[in-house]
Amino acid sequence: MGLLDGKVALITGAARGQGRSHAQLLAEEGADIIALDICKQLDTVHYAMSTPEDLEETVRLVEKTGRRIVAKQVDIRDYDALKTAVTEGVSELGRLDIVLANAGIMTQSLEPHTLNREEWRDGIDVMLTGTWNTLQITSPILIDGGRGGAIVITSSVSGLRPMYTDLSGGFDSYCAAKFGVVGLARAYAAGLAEHSIRVNTVHPTGCDTPMVNNDFFPAYMEGNMKTAMAFQNTMPVQMVDPIDISRAILYLVGESGRYVTGIQLPVDAGITYAS
């Protein structure tokens, strides 16, 4: 028996990286999955974003566990399209118990100020407004289900401690959004508590995913040494693995975290509080 038998989990940004890892682990623990991802490139993102083929691989890995999965290509900035995708997924799988607002991007540029306003807009729209859209659409479904539930928002160590801005819209939007979702989570934790719906945030340090494991990100860090130094982990590891974040999320959404709500859980190799 799995820890999540009979439950349905919705995951944004599920095509690869942390989102795929979450989908796979929760499926291994018995959950059916609604996997959502944009699967296209944004002009302000300077590394390769997810593709339809990435989402197909997530489907394959979940189905390999024996669980069901509904996968949709959708832009979480588009409220109406997201609502349609969520509604169709819940209708097909019959219920909703867990929501992982995981989708995120980095819009930093190697040449600051060239796309400042566009970088700011896209970063905030995806990571803050997109998260709000996700909460707005899924919270009533969880309430109507009458079984309680769990929501986890993916923030960052950049949502717990100040970082050095490079004065770009991309970096500023990342920090603002990652702090902003903490405020959202705490407000929703208070508002949904009477329905036994728990809301928490996880805060990874650098995580070995395609968002940072690419040609662009090391070059960006090399050109912004203050930021690079601020991301030095206390423990002797350069980056954590996606499964480390997935296991923290499993704790929060399972019976183990049944009375845990409104917290900020770092998975950060000591970078936030031990440095």
TrEMBL record:
Q: At the top level of its lineage, which domain of life is listed?
A: Bacteria
Kindly list the GO molecular function terms attached to this UniProt entry. oxidoreductase activity
Q: Which InterPro entries match?
A: NAD(P)-bd_dom_sf (IPR036291), SDR_fam (IPR002347), SDR_subfam_1 (IPR023985)
Record has Oxidoreductase as a keyword: yes
Q: Which UniProt keywords apply?
A: NAD, Oxidoreductase
Thylakoid in keyword set: no
- Coiled coil, from the record: none
Q: Which PANTHER family match?
A: DEHYDROGENASES, SHORT CHAIN, ESTRADIOL 17-BETA-DEHYDROGENASE 8-RELATED
Question: What does the similarity note say?
Answer: Belongs to the short-chain dehydrogenases/reductases (SDR) family.
In Swiss-Prot or TrEMBL terms, this protein is called Putative oxidoreductase
Biological source species = Rhodococcus wratislaviensis NBRC 100605
